[in-house]
Write a structure and sequence with these properties.
The protein has 263 residues and is of the alpha/beta class. It has two domains: 199 residues, Vaccinia Virus protein VP39 (Rossmann fold, 3-Layer(aba) Sandwich); 44 residues, no CATH class. It has nine helices and ten strands. The protein is globular.
Length: 263
């Protein structure tokens, strides 16, 4: 990984301990690892390839596709020997029917107008016994105003019921989960989540200390964090949970789907 943090929309270009978003995003790829082992995998909207580099350690082959040429160029630099990158539009994928054992689509659906066509195209290139692993923000948490997401890069955000209904038109939903920070993380690293914290004195005092830590020089902050808590300052992939009972309240919805037999 490069040494800076930059963002284009929701794509992380560089991350590691520098980015509060890194743990949340990589947690989804860590969640997918048991499904991709020794399988052919397609990561749609792969961004800059951080997920590809993680899955390539387990998968037989990983193909990443993105419409952003700059992201694809960066992703190509992340490639292992068993990974490939191409420019690809999710509505018109350049693959034969049934090309992949597993498709990962993380934080993609909310950016697309033609969402039904997108899901149908993913089903087309998925093998008959294949898995789709998909994530998207939870509208119960993000609370769009009159149906319009507050994130300017998002077109539509689903409630759990809406997402289930959309997916079940094309797939059989095997697992439907909410992704959340573990309860042991008292202060989330995101401003929106911090604004939702209780106003009691203990919580707000802890938040104040967190903000002080966050402004320290990187080396000082990480050294102190590892000395005090024995871990990086920002949450890592292992600090996130994926639980069915959290679908109504979690910031992110995650679905594990099977291709329907008649598709």
């Amino acid at each position: 990984m490069a040494s800076e943090e930059r963002f284009k929309g929701s794509n992380i270009v560089d991350a590691g301990s520098l980015s509060p978003y890194w743990g949340e995003h990589t947690a989804r790829y860590a969640f997918a690892l048991p499904y991709v082992e020794e399988r052919s995998v397609f990561d749609i909207a792969c961004g800059t390839g951080y997920g590809i580099s993680l899955m390539a350690n387990k998968a037989e082959i990983v193909v990443g596709g993105d419409v952003d040429i700059l992201a694809a160029i960066q992703a190509k630099k992340e490639c292992a020997e068993n990974a490939r990158i191409l420019l690809a539009n999710g509505l018109h994928l350049p693959f034969y029917d049934g090309s992949f054992d597993v498709i990962t689509s993380f934080e993609t659906l909310e950016h697309i107008d033609e969402r039904s066509a997108f899901l149908s195209e993913l089903s087309r290139v998925l093998k008959s016994d294949g898995h789709l692993i998909l994530s998207t923000p939870n509208a119960n948490y993000t609370k769009p105003v009159n149906g319009k997401p507050t994130n300017p890069f998002h077109v539509f955000e689903y409630t759990p019921q809406e997402l289930l209904a959309e997916l079940e038109l094309v797939f059989s939903v095997e697992s439907f989960l909410g992704q959340s920070l573990d309860d042991s993380i008292r202060i989330p690293p995101f401003q929106d989540a911090q604004r939702r914290l209780p106003n009691d004195l203990l919580t707000q005092s802890t938040l104040f200390c967190w903000k002080v830590f966050n402004k320290l020089p990187f080396i000082v902050r990480e050294s102190l964090s590892k000395a005090i808590w024995r871990k990086p300052f920002y949450p890592t992939a292992t600090d996130y949970t994926f639980l069915a009972e959290q679908t109504n309240s979690a910031p992110v919805l995650v679905a594990v789907c099977r291709k329907k037999a008649d598709k």
